[in-house]
Amino acid sequence: MDNNVYIKKSTQIFDAIVVGSGITGGWAAKELTEKGLKVLMVERGRAVEHRKDYIGEGVPTWKMANRGKVNLQLVEDQYYIQRQNYAFNDATKHFYGNDRDLPYSTPADRPFSWIRGNQLGGKSLLWHRQSYRWSDLDFGANAADGHGVDWPIRYKDLEPWYSYVEKHAGISGAKENIPVLPDSEFLPAFEFNNVEKEMKKRIEAKYTDRKLIMGRCAHLSVPAPQHLEQGRGPCQARNECQKGCSFGAYFSTQSSTLPAALKTNNLSIATDAVVHSVIYDAKTKRAKGVKVIDSETLETREYFAKIIFLCASTLGTTQIMLNSTSETFPNGIANSSGALGHYLMDHLYSVGASGHIDGFEEEYYSGRRPTGPYMPRFRNVTEKYGKFLRGYALSGSASREAWGNFANQDGFGVDFKNSIKKAGGWTFSLSGSGEMLPRYENSVTLHPTKKDKWGMPQLHIDCAYSENDIKMREDIANTAAEILEAIGAKDIVKHNASPSEWPIGLSIHEMGTARMGKDPKTSVLNGYNQAHDVPNLFVTDGACMASSAWQNPSLTYMAITARACDYAVKQLKLGKV
Amino acid sequence: MPHNNKLADALRPEIDAPRRTALKQMALMFGLTVSAQSLDVLAATVKGTMPLTTKFLTADQLQMTGQIADLIIPTTDTPGALAVNVHGFIDNYLAECLSKDEQKQFLIGLKKIDVVSEEKFHKVFLAATHKQHIQLLTAIEKSELGFNAEDKTFFKQFKSLTLFGYYTSEVGATQELAYLAIPGGYQGNFPFAKVGKAWALN
């Protein structure tokens, strides 16, 4: 990357500042620069260059220290929260935040796991890339049952923007015409294996309300010309994405939005710059810039711009907003409603069932597919289910047991070794992704006294499941087991992690805390992600969400960001912001 | 990986060949004169491909670990656990990745095998015969001969470490199993016969 892109100090008044460089920051930078704005992207972490900085990529296990496990002392010192993430290992650990530097508090009995990806590219380097559209069942959910405030937008508002971001990012999947899960602009779907095909047949024969489809994901199964132009190639089915993908086969800031933004020559980037607060000008009633702390020297600087996009991650953004106090906004910028910091949500994960499938010894697969079969929501769709509100998806896959599964089996010696070589039996699993209700009491606040090493007040996160969430979890485990039973699985094991085993936050779909809404008295942002109180301040990351739905949220963040950028630039040109 | 003995490395693929002869030949090749005693020392080193330094285990514990690992994954048409230094991996893993408590449990587990071996066969595990070794490991899986459920749990963990160490080694991943670093794409309709063995990376 051209080194002139990186800046430290600047007195320039940019057209826009984008705080954060993850999925939404990258999109905001791309959209705003392509529309001709001079943009400064501010990232609290270090620069990460595509390919060059993927230091764990392609290293075989036998060449890795501890075969990929992270030294325990290092984990206990620096990664005691991050270690819980499934993708945390010796080849990815440099893309996770250092927990010792990033402290936060929770009530003792309500753990919350805050997974941090503080570097250029943010968590776009770590996400699991499942990509699903929402439908009006989701956008209308708050209005329908009265939990949370009504979304100020509906599917039709976002539909063209879904298409727009999908074409650029590259989403693989198959057209299914399922009302609760509108089709995207698809690249070819990944294949089912033969056992999954059979399970799909059995499930769909048994349940008329359920379909097993291939999981839609931001991987280039077959790149389109626009992806080749971005310098990206087809997915190689390594499924080691979080180490970094030099093929650019999956969507990340580095592979997709950053090259587009850089091409405009309108982008500057300030890395190692921890945003302390948004500077508010009471005279103009606008935000005029951001105050940052140099992460290395602890010096403070200010950057100025006409509009500001906060894309610093759900809790990162809210932490900045809460810390942006002024006479006008003593409780955080754009917080006249008092909703800022409230209605925190995550998804219900680590719950489901798995079982063995007899037979199919002649069948196998080749390659490590970066996605798997997916069963879209079927609860509370056409008829009321009664046990709880809203719904969940189930994702699963069929695979043969591998060496890692054999430690639990008795035996040793030549026969044992040969049985591993022959591959084990098939297992099929279904695990849930459930919607969590938005509730005022699930909140983040600034700790009154504790600060981090940069002097930022620490977040106090207080988040717990509601009765509805707990009932949904139970239903996920029971239903997954029932489905497995119905399709002939054996030795079915149900799984439902407790909040201490799987703390809220660990699904890494934390969202809400600066919600969108129609009414400035009860929400922070309007239907264009614009702060009700501060017209040139936009929030387009997960903080903006008024409900969580049951789908992986990133694709919706992308679409919402692109739409907000379009609106912001139009307003800027009209002189309205 | 702690293996400093070049001669031991060179001999690794031939672990089934009579070791003293091989060593002698190699020594001759290098123009070395070797005493019977130093041959013994070298042979002992090669037999277990024992690292000269350990991070956590004592020399005896390391050798015992190597023996047990090799009973779990012996040499077949591909080298077994001992030949690929799974014991060295376990020693390193114990030091680097396990807690004090887990380290302690591991040593208690090893010790218990020695205790049962002495009770039943009047010699420590390392001095027992191959047949006795098999009797001991069979008993631990069945919680017999004085082994209990805790010992079985230890053995499960030992096995898990052995499998991890072996199948993430180059030999385990690429010779024993099928290894595709860059598969190039996913094929869901793929008969097992086409590869004929399990993937190292599932």
Features:
heterodimer, A: 577 residues, alpha/beta, FAD/NAD(P)-binding domain, six-stranded antiparallel sheet, B: 202 residues, mainly alpha
Describe the structure.
- The complex is a heterodimer of chains A (577) and B (202).
- Chain A has helices at 23-34, 72-78, 136-139, 141-145, 155-169, 194-206, 225-229, 253-263, 314-322, 414-421, 467-486, 554-573, and strands at residues 13-19, 39-42, 171-172, 186-187, 213-214, 267-270, 273-281, 286-294, 300-310, 351-357, 363-366, 373-375, 392-400, 426-434, 443-451, 457-462, 490-496, 537-539.
- With 577 residues, chain A is of the alpha/beta class.
- Chain A has a single domain (8-573), classed as FAD/NAD(P)-binding domain, CATH 3.50.50.
- In chain A, the strands form 4 sheets. In chain A, strands 1, 2, 6, 7, 8, 9 and 18 form a 7-stranded mixed beta sheet that branches. A 6-stranded antiparallel beta sheet of chain A has the order 5-12-13-14-10-17. A two-stranded parallel ribbon of chain A has the order 3-4.
- In chain A, a hairpin with a 4-residue loop joins strand 7 and strand 8.
- In chain A, helix 1 runs parallel beside helix 8 and helix 5 (155-169) crosses helix 12.
- Chain A is globular, with a radius of gyration of 23 Å.
- The relative contact order of chain A is 0.18.
- The model of chain A has no long low-confidence stretch (mean pLDDT 97).
- Helices cover 57% and strands 2% of the residues of chain B.
- Chain B has 9 helices and 1 strand, in the order H-H-H-H-H-H-H-H-H-E.
- Chain B has helices at residues 6-11, 19-29, 36-47, 59-72, 86-97, 100-121, 130-142, 149-167, 170-176; one strand at residues 187-191.
- Chain B is globular and about 55 Å long.
- Chain B starts with 5 loop residues before the first helix and ends in an 11-residue tail after the last strand.
- In chain B, 37% of the residues are buried.
- Mean pLDDT of chain B is 83; it is low at 1-48.
- At the A-B interface, helix 6, strand 11 and helix 10 of A face helix 5, helix 7, helix 8, helix 9 and strand 1 of B.
- Strand 11 (363-366) of chain A pairs antiparallel with strand 1 of chain B.
